[in-house]
Write a structure and sequence with these properties.
- With about 425 residues, the protein is of the alpha+beta class.
- The chain is built from 13 helices and 13 strands.
- It binds adenosine monophosphate (AMP) and magnesium ion (2 copies).
């Protein structure tokens, strides 16, 4: 274990552990068979799996890091759990969220008593994960994150990304997303895929991927997409004319329509697609924070349709109203494909003051050397990104867990 692990590494480690627990909870809900589907809004569902996984993740992380702000998709639940100190009531899905500064301490309703989130509702004991993932703690925190304090951090939780597909049986589209932002920048992320390997009996079901910008990524093998064609991924359940027009403008040879922002970024980093193009205001901060951090950690880029990176500070609106464009390379090329009239419809995101990524390169030296030895650059013979993040190091793509490369090209398997 790295001596005296930093706050960021402890949060990543706890997030890996709790994502495993949440993944079990999600699978159990399906096994029991009662999904408890609720319609939150138009084309926007919530199930018992979303609710239970959110309770598990937020309760566990909040217990371990009581002074860190945590926002989850199913916040209607957590808002009852956390004392609303100076916190106005608002619709978490509305695009016009009033500005508010999180209190220094998000107090528990019953801070000095036994863990109990809501007087009416006890969280089942097996929903509380207090463990840390030992593998994560073996790694040393990048220098630029070492002094990060509680108040610098916001954790964005999507307890179940791809709910529509979950209810329809496209289980391999489902992911659990825990993104960690520091002063508005997505810096670390955990993506858990509960039904990975569903089609390979005998192999462990599910996998966890994690990464920290400047340290590396773990839990998957990075692959390069084919050089002789253009493959674009986009939404399968939230599509409309503009979404399709933006995809078509990139002149794809193939379009892969799958569920979940997390799943689509997995397709990117595993070399199945070249770009994730979503000309819509429907994606939220909890959808993109973890995927953005992991994508960025391997040298990719996620921005709005103006090329601006998302801001994950506590006071930002939840919706990504500038659209989502994610690439492993050639970001500017795809950005330029987007027709002007679509760009005009999309808002310009407010960028967070960038962290000092020069420091990332200095502290990431050992990893960069290792990455070079592993010939990551040879495998990924793509041109450098032409964007603000092109100075970020290519990260270590070696997996620390016993996963097999995902050779399941059928990304639309209904279980
Ligand atoms: P999709 O690619 O359709 O799975 O969307 C990625 C994420 O954004 C999922 O968590 C969706 O729930 C969310 N999302 C995208 N568009 C919408 C929308 N129009 N309404 C509600 N949620 C959306
Ligand atoms: Mg989602
Ligand atoms: Mg969700």
């Amino acid at each position: 274990m790295a001596s005296n692990p930093s706050l960021v590494m402890r949060i990543v480690s706890a997030s890996v552990a709790v994502s495993n627990r949440a993944s079990n909870i999600i699978r159990n809900v399906l096994t029991k068979g009662d999904l408890g589907i609720v319609e939150k809004g138009k084309n926007d569902l919530q199930t018992e799996a979303d609710r239970s996984a959110q309770r598990c993740i937020v309760a566990s992380l909040h217990k371990q890091f009581p002074n860190v702000a945590i926002f989850g998709e199913e916040d209607e639940l957590t808002r009852r759990y956390l004392a609303p100190v100076n916190k106005p009531q608002y619709d978490s899905l509305s695009s016009s969220v009033p500005q508010w500064t999180p209190p220094k301490t998000l107090q528990l309703l019953d801070k000095n008593q036994n863990w109990q989130l809501d007087p009416q509702e006890k969280i089942p004991q097996d929903f509380i994960e207090q463990g840390f993932d030992a593998e994560v703690l073996k790694h040393t925190c990048p220098e630029y994150l070492k002094d990060t304090k509680d108040e610098d951090i916001v954790i964005w939780v999507d307890p179940l990304d791809g709910t529509a597909e979950f209810t329809q049986g496209f289980l391999d589209h489902v992911t659990v997303l825990i993104g960690i932002s520091v002063r508005g920048n997505a810096v670390a992320g955990v993506i858990h895929q509960p039904w990975y390997n569903f089609d390979k009996p005998g192999l462990p079901l599910g996998r966890c991927l994690w990464g920290v910008i400047g340290l590396g990524t773990y839990g998957f093998e990075r692959e390069t997409p084919p050089a002789d064609k253009v493959i674009i991924t986009t939404s399968r359940s939230h599509s409309d004319r503009m979404v399709t027009e933006a995809v078509e403008a990139c002149k794809p040879d193939e379009v892969v329509r799958v569920g979940g922002a997390g799943h689509k970024v997995l397709l990117l980093i595993e070399g199945k697609v070249h770009a994730y193009v979503f000309a819509s205001k429907g994606c939220k901060k909890w959808d993109t924070c973890a995927p953005e951090a992991i994508l960025h950690a391997v040298g990719g880029t996620l921005t709005d349709f103006h090329g601006i990176r998302m801001n994950y500070s506590a006071d930002v609106q939840r919706k990504n109203t500038g659209g989502v464009l994610a690439t492993v390379a050639d970001h500017a090329k795809f950005l330029n494909c987007i027709p002007e009239h679509i760009r005009d419809v999309m808002d310009k995101s407010s960028e967070a003051p960038p962290l000092d990524f020069k420091e990332v390169i200095v502290c990431g030296g050992a990893d960069l050397e290792k990455a070079k030895k592993n010939e990551v650059s040879e495998k990924t013979s793509s041109p450098p990104n032409q964007n603000a993040e092109s100075t970020a190091p290519k990260a270590d793509s070696k997996s620390t867990s016993a996963t097999v490369p995902n050779d399941n090209a059928n990304t639309n398997t209904k279980l």
